[in-house]
Amino acid sequence: MKTDTIAAIATGLSSGGISIIRISGDHAFPAIDRIYQSKNKKKKLSKEKSHTINYGFIVDDEDIIDEVMVTIMRAPSTYTREDVIEINCHGGIVVTRKVLELVLGQGIRLAEPGEFTKRAFLNGRIDLSQAEAVCDIINAKNDIALRNSIKQLKGRELEIIKTIRNNILRDIAFIEAALDDPEHISIEGFSEELYEHLNKYSQSINKLIQGSKSGKLIKEGIKTVILGKPNVGKSSLLNILVREDRAIVTDIAGTTRDTLEETIRLNDITLNIIDTAGIRSTEDEVEKIGVDKAMRIAKEADLIIYVMDSSTPLDDNDEIILSLIKDKMAILLLNKSDLYPKISVNDIKDKSNHPIISTSFVEHKGLEELEQLIKEMFFKGDITFNEDVYITNDRHIEAFTNSLEALNMVKESINNNMPEDFYSIDLMNAYEELGKILGENVGEDLINMIFAEFCMGK
Amino acid sequence: MSYVYEEYDVVVIGAGHAGCEAALASARLSLKTIIFTVAMDSIALMPCNPNIGGTSKGHLVREIDALGGEMGKNIDKTYIQSRMLNLSKGPAVHSLRAQADKREYSSSMRKVLENTPNLTLRQAEIVEILTKDKQITGVKTYSGSIYPCKAVIICTGTYLNARCIYGETVHMTGPDGLSSAVYLTESLKNLGIEMFRFKTGTPARIDKRSIDFSRMEEQKGDEKIVPFSFSNRSEDIIKDQVSCWLTYTTPETHDIIRANIGRSPLYSGNIKGTGARYCPSIEDKVVKFADKERHQVFIEPEGSYTNEMYISGMSSSLPEDVQVKMYRSVPGLEKANIVRNAYAIEYDCINPSQLKPTLEFRNIDGLFCAGQFNGSSGYEEAAAQGLVAGINAAMKLLDKEPLIIDRSQAYIGVLIDDLITKETNEPYRMMTSRAEYRLLLRQDNADLRLRKIGYQVGLIDEDSYQAIHNKEKAIKEEIERLENTTIGANKDVQALLESLKSAPLSTATTLAELIRRPELNYEMLESIDPGRKVLPEDVIEQVNINIKYEGYIVRQLKQVEQHKKMENKKIPETLDYNMISGLRIEAKQKLVKYRPVSIGQASRISGVTPADISVLMVYLMQHNSKEAKSKQ
User: Fold this and answer.
1) Nearest to B310 by CA among B166, B204, B200, B201
2) What pLDDT score was predicted for residue A244?
C-alpha cells in the first residue's frame, strides 16, 4: 500500500461555513507543525496528546490564513489507521481552499476519489462486507473525475498540454536514441538546446497554472441559472442583482439570444449567475439554440431561479419546466406583481414544492426576500456546489506544479553538468504528470517515438 | 518406429545462445541434461552480427556472468576487438561491446559444453513434445527415438519453419543455409500454444580483399580492456585487436534502392512476418527516413580465420542483382565481391504472454522456453533467458524456490517482465530506456547486484561469494571515510583545486563533497588525502559513482521501495477475475490473458488503469481475509 500522505476537504464545501480538511499518513504531523501556530506560539501539535482538539491558527510564514480548531489522532485508532489530522476551518470557502493549498505545499498530495475509504479498508478498519461497495465506487468515481478533468479544460489548454507533452517526449526520445545508438546519433551540444526548450515548457505551464487559479475564482460561485419564458423579466433580475446594464433588456420577446454570465456577491455567498434565452417552443432557429443551451445549463446548475409572469396564465411550457426542475434546487419567482395578476402563489403551490416569492422587478419588490432565502438555503446546506470542479482544478494545479518541478530538476542537472542520461529521468516524470490530466499512461510511448523519429539500428 | 532411447531430467532443444546457457545451468546444478541441435557445427552460432554486447546488451552479458552464466567468459576468450561505448555519458549507460571471432566463439562454447559433467550433446531434430495431463513426459526425434524427461526447454531460435528470402528467391532453410525444424510447430499447436510469425534480417558478407579501406574511417578498439566476466582481470585477456571501418551510403545507393523497391519482398508482400523497428533493413531506412542524405555503414570482420566482412547497417532482402549494385555504390565497396547474400528470415515463435516469470508455460507443467522462440531478438537477450529458464527448470526438479529476477534488480528482470507482460508486436530488443531504474542497474555493479543470487542458486562458488562480501565492505568503509574526512581551506588544497580548474574552498568541507564536484573525482584528490589505503580499481569505481550521483541514486532507491511493495502483493494463480464486479471489461480481459503474478505486474499491463488496480487490491484483501478465516 502507498504510504504517502494525502489530504482533501472532507466536508461538503458549502455546509454552514465550516469545512474540514483531512490529512492522513506518516507526514501529517511534520506538516501540521510547519503551518500551525498556537495562541502563545509555543505549542507543537506533534507533542500533544492523541485525540485532542487544539485551538490556533494556520499560518503561511507570518501571515495568518485562518483561525482553526485542529483535531489530532495518532495511528492506529483512526479512520484510516494512519496518523490523521483534521483542520476545522472557519473562514469560508476561499480561505479553506487557501489552507488546503498550503497543506498540499508540504509534500502532501491530494487524495484520489475514495482514497480515505480505500485506506481505511486496506488497513483493516472497515468491515469486509463493505469491500464490494468500495470496489464499485473506485472505478465509478474515477471515471467521473477523469471526465471532469477533460471537461474542465478549454480546447486551447488541451492543445497546449498535448503539445508540451509531445515535445517533452520528443526530447526524451532523442536523448534515448542517442544513448542507445551512440554510433549513429550524436547528442553533442543538445543540453543547451534542451535548456531553451525547458524554459519554453515552463513558461507555458506557468500560464496554465495561472489560468487554473484564476479560473477557480469564477468557478467559486454557486452556479445559478435564471430560467423563464421570454419577456418575464429574467434580464431585469440579472441587472438588478448585478446593478449594471449588461444584459440587453427590451420589451420584445426573445432579445436575449445567448447566455450571459455574471458573478455577484451576496454578503458571504458568491453567485455565478447565468441568464438564458427564454424557454418556449419557438420556430426561430437562432433562439432555439439558446433555449437548448439553457436547458443543458439548467441540468448542471446548483440553483435554478425560475421566473414567471403573474400577469399571464400558466401554459404547457410552464408545466414542462416545473416538472423538469422538480428534483433540482430551485426558487420560483412570480414577477410583475405590479400588474393585474392572472395566477397566484397558491395556483403554483399545487404544482411544485419549491419556495415561491412574489416580486416586482420594476418596483424592486421581493428582492430582499430572495436574497434572504438564498442565504438560508446556502447555510442550511441545501445548496451544494459541484465539488468535482474544485477537485479537478486542484488536480490540474498539482499535476502542473509537479511537472514544473520535474523540469526544474532537469535544468539543475544541466547546470551541474550531469551527463545526458540523467535528464530523461525527470523529463519522463514531467511527461507522466501532464499525462495524468489527460488520463493517459506512458506505456510504450517512448519506444514508439524513438523508432518513429530516429533512424537507428545495425 | 519409435522406441525409448534414454531418460533424462532436462531436455534442451536447440544449441544457440539460449540453449547453451540453459543446458549449462541445468547440468551444473547436477541435473542429467541433454541438448539437441540440428547440426553439431552450429553450437553458439552467430548467424548475424559478429559482436557481443553493445548498449544495454552489454549489461545483460555482465548480469549473465554475475549469475554464473557462460557468455561473458566465452567472449572474453574469443574477442578480437573491445570497446566501452557511451564513455562521455553517465555510468548507467556505459556499455561494453566486443567483436567476436565467430568460429572461435562457437568452438570455444562447444568445448565448454562437451566438457561439462551431466551434459550430453546430440545431433537430432525434435519433432514432438510429449505430455500427459498437461505435464511434460518427454520428446521425440525425427528418427523416432523417445527421450523421457521431466522438463523441456525450447530454444529453437529462428529455426522453426524458417524461410530465407531475398527478392523473388526463397530458401526453406534456417540461418546460414542450415536445415530448419519443420515439425515442432505442429506439435506445439496441438498443445494449445499460440504462435506468432516474426521476421529479421542480415546484411551481405563481403570479401576483405575486394574492399578499399583507404576510403573509410578506421575504428580501433579501446586501449584499456574491460572484461565482460567478473572472473577475469583486464591484464589476463589483453591482446592485439583488429579494426572496424566506417563508411556511408550515397545518394546513388538510395536511388538504386528506390528504383527497385517494388522487388523487395517486404514491399511486394512476400514477407508476412513482423520485423523489428530497431534493426530496419536499408530499404526501410531509405523509405522511412527519406530526407536523410546518408546512412552509416560499419564494416566488421567476422573473425581472424576468414576474409569475410559483415556490412553492418545494410541488411536487406532485395534481389541479388540489386544487392550487388547497392553495395558497390558505397565508397570503398566499389569493387566488392559478395561472399554471402543479404537475406530476410521468417520463423515461428510464441506469444510470450503464455509464460510465467520463470519462463515456464502456464498451461504445460515442465515446459520452459527461451530466446528468439519467445519473441525476443539478439544473442544476449537469448542467453539471458536461457540462463533463467535453465535455472528454473533445475529449481523445479530440485524442488527449490524459483528464480524470479525483479525489474529493479537487473536488465534480465526488465527483459522477462516486458516479454510476458507487454503486448509483443515485433522481436523484442533490450534498450536502456526500458529500464526505469537504470541508474541502479549499471554494468559496473552487476556483480554487486547478482553474485549473491547466483550463489544461492548454486552457480557461483564460495570464493566468489566471499569476494563480493569483501568488496561491499570495502566500498562502504571507504565512502564513510570520505564523508567524514574534513578538508580545510589550506594552501595545498587550494593549489590542487586551482590546478584542476575547480573553485577554491571558502570554508572546510569533506572529501566526499569535493568528489561530488563534476570536474573532480576520487583519483584526483590523492595528494590531499594521506589517509587513503590502496584499493582495487573496481572498489574505487563504485566509491566514485556512489558519491557523485548519490542524490539521483537515493531517489531511485526510494522509487524501488514503492515498486517492491506492489511486486510483493501476490495474486493467486486461480483468481477468477470475472468475479470482481468493480473491474472494467477491458481490464478483466487483459488480466485473464496475462494472469499477472503480482499487483505490480498487473499495473504494467496496457489497458489496466490505476483504478482497476485499486479495485483489485481491495478485492484481494477481502479474498485473503476470507481464506485466513476459513483456515482457522
Assistant:
1) B204
2) 46
Residue % of chain B over a pLDDT of 90: 88
Best mutation target among A26, A172, A179, A448 (most B Cβ atoms within 10 Å) is: A179
Q: Using CA atoms, how far apart are residues A197 and A191, in angstroms rounded to an integer?
A: 10
Rounded to two decimals, the pTM is: 0.81
- State mean pLDDT over B215-226: 96
DSSP strand pairing (A109-110 vs A6-9): parallel
The amino acid that residue A222 corresponds to is I
Q: Which residues of chain B are within 8 Å of residue A183 when distances are taken between CB atoms?
A: 85, 296, 298
State in words which class domain B569-631 has: mainly alpha
Residue type at B77? Answer: K
Please tell me the number of Cα atoms within 13 Å of B503 on its side-chain side: 8
Comparing CA positions, the residue from A225, A382, A363 lying closest to residue A307 is A225
Confidence at residue B162, expressed as pLDDT on a 0 to 100 scale: 96
Q: Do B90 and A422 touch (CB under 8 A)?
A: yes
The type of residue at A76 is P
CATH, range B474-551: 1.10.10.1800
Query: Residue A62's domain is classified under what CATH number?
Result: 3.30.1360.120
For A123, the closest chain B residue by CA position comes to B621
Distance linking the first and last C-alpha atoms of chain A: 44
**A143 pLDDT higher than 60:** yes
**What's the domain count of chain A?**
3
Alpha helices in A66-114 (DSSP H): 93-104
Tell me if chain B has a CB within 8 Å of the CB of A128.
yes
Q: Where would I find the H helices in A248-366?
A: 285-300, 316-324, 345-349
Between chains, do B439 and A118 touch, taking CB under 8 Å as contact?
A: no
Q: Is residue A213 within 8 Å of A396, Cβ to Cβ?
A: no
Q: Is a pLDDT exceeding 70 seen at residue B323?
A: yes
pLDDT at A2: 47
Over residues A240-297, the pLDDT tens digits come to: 776 644 443 444 444 444 455 666 766 556 677 776 655 544 445 444 545 566 677 7
Strand ranges in A49-140 using DSSP code E only, listed in sequence order: 52-60, 63-73, 84-89, 109-110
Q: What fold does the segment set B8-201+347-457 form as a domain? A: FAD/NAD(P)-binding domain (3.50.50)
Contacts of B279 in chain A (CB under 8 A): 457-458
Average pLDDT over residues B369-396: 97
Say if the Cβ atoms of A122 and B89 lie within 8 Å.
no
Ordered DSSP codes for B177-202: GPPPB-SHHHHHHHTT--EEEEEEEE
pLDDT band at B9 (very low <50, low <70, confident <90, very high): very high
In the DSSP assignment, the letter for residue A46 is G
Q: How many A/B residue pairs have CB atoms within 8 Å? A: 126
CATH fold of the domain at B205-344: Elongation Factor Tu (Ef-tu); domain 3 (2.40.30)
Chain A segment 400-419 residues within 8 A of B by beta carbon are 416-419
Percent share of chain B, pLDDT over 70: 99
Is residue A431 over pLDDT 90?
Answer: yes
Say if strands B296-301 and B244-248 run parallel, antiparallel, or are unpaired. antiparallel
Least confident of A24-33, A444-453, B339-348: A444-453
Q: Which of A81, A134, A90, A86 is nearest to A112 (CA)?
A: A134
Domain that holds residue A89: 6-127
Nearest CA in chain B to A417: B518
Whether residue A180 and residue B56 make contact (CB cut-off 8 A), yes or no, is yes
**Given this model, what pLDDT does residue A13 score?**
53
Gap between the Cα atoms of B368 and B355, Å rounded: 8
By C-alpha distance, which of A223, A61, A150 is closest to A439?
A: A150
